[in-house]
Amino acid sequence: SKVESSKRLAAYEAVDRHILPEHKIIGIGSGSTVPYVVERIIAQGEELNHDRVFLPTGFQSKELIVNGRLRLGDVDQYPNIDVTIDGADEVDHDLNCIKGGGACHLREKVLAEAAQTFIVVADYRKNSDVLGTTYKQGVPIEVAPFAYAKLLQNVHHLGSPTATLRMAKGAGTKAGPIVTDNGNFVIDAPFDEQTMKDPYSLLKKIKMLTGVVEVGLFCGMAQAAYFGNADGTVTIKW
Ligand code: DER
Fold it and tell me: Are the CB atoms for 165 and 177 separated by under 8 Å?
C-alpha cells in the first residue's frame, strides 16, 4: 500500500543518513515503521553490525532486534546512545511529537533522551502542523494503575473532559485496560487545538499530576523527522 511503501521510504532514508559506521549503540523504537529501520540496518551488513549493540523500547522492539539476529543491549549497560530512531503518531512544524499510540512511550522517551541524535520516521499521515490535527485519539499518558481513577478526573479538569482509560479491544484480546510493558495503564487525553499549539506547556502540566509515569508529548527532542510520501518522495523536517 501507499502507506506501507511511504513508511519504508522514510525508514530507509533516515537509516542511510543517520546510522553511520561510527555509530555503535543504537536505540530501536516501536510501532509499524521501525521494522523497515531494522531491515535497512541489517542490509548494512554483518561486518558493521557485529560491533553494534541495539537497545529496545519494548517487547515488540526487542523481538525485531532478536529476530533480526542483531546484538541486544540493555540501556542499564549503555546509558549513552549514539542514535535512536523511532516512529511517531504525529509531528508538528516544530518537530514536537505525539507518541504512545503503541503504549511504549516511557521506554521510547528514555532512549530518545539518552541519544546524541533522535530521529523520527513516519508515513505522510503523521506530517502535521499542529498536534491533534491528524492523531485525534488524544495525548497518551502512561499512569500508575493505583492512581488512575483520580488521575482521570484530574485530566478531565485539566482540559480533557473526554479523556479515557485505554481498553484492550475486540474478541480474543484481553478483558480490561491495556497494560504497558512496565505494568502501567494508559489514559488517552484529547485537548483543544489552542492547547496543542503549545505542547511543552501542556506536557509540564500533565507531568505534574500525581500518578503520571510519562507523557506521549516529545517536545524539542527530535533532530529530524523523515516522512515518506505517496508519490515516492521523502519530506525531511529539521
Ligand atoms: O507509539 C509510538 O510512539 C510508536 O512509535 C508508534 O505510534 C509509531 O506509529 P507507527 O506504527 O505508524 O510507526
Answer: yes
Task: Supply 227's cell numbers.
Answer: 516522512
Tell me how far apart the alpha carbons of residues 202 and 185 are, in angstroms, rounded to a whole number.
20
**Phi/psi at 117 (nearest 5 deg)?**
-130, 130
pLDDT digits (tens, 9 = 90+) for 108-155: 999 999 999 999 999 999 999 999 999 999 999 999 999 999 999 999
Report the Cα 116 to chain-centroid distance in Å.
Answer: 17
Active-site residue 108, yes or no?
A: yes
What is the Rg, in whole angstroms, of the alpha carbon atoms belonging to the chain?
17
Ligand 1 — pocket residues by CB below 6 A?
29-33, 86-89, 99-102, 104-105, 108
125 CA from centroid of ligand 1 (Å): 12
Question: What is the pairing mode between strands 97-98 and 115-123?
Answer: unpaired
Q: Is ipTM beyond 0.90?
A: yes
Q: Has residue 19 got a pLDDT over 90?
A: yes
Give Dmax (Cα) for the chain: 55
Q: How would DSSP label each residue in 116-174?
A: EEEEEEEEGGGB-SSTTSS--S-EEEEE-GGGHHHHHHHHHHHT-TT-EEPBP-STTS-
Q: Each residue of 143-192: pLDDT tens digit?
A: 999 999 999 999 999 999 999 999 998 888 999 999 999 999 999 999 99
CA of 176 to the centre of ligand 1 (A): 22
* Cβ neighbours for 161, distance < 8 A, ≥ 6 positions apart: none
Q: Measure the CA–CA gap between 217 and 145, rounded to whole angstroms.
A: 20
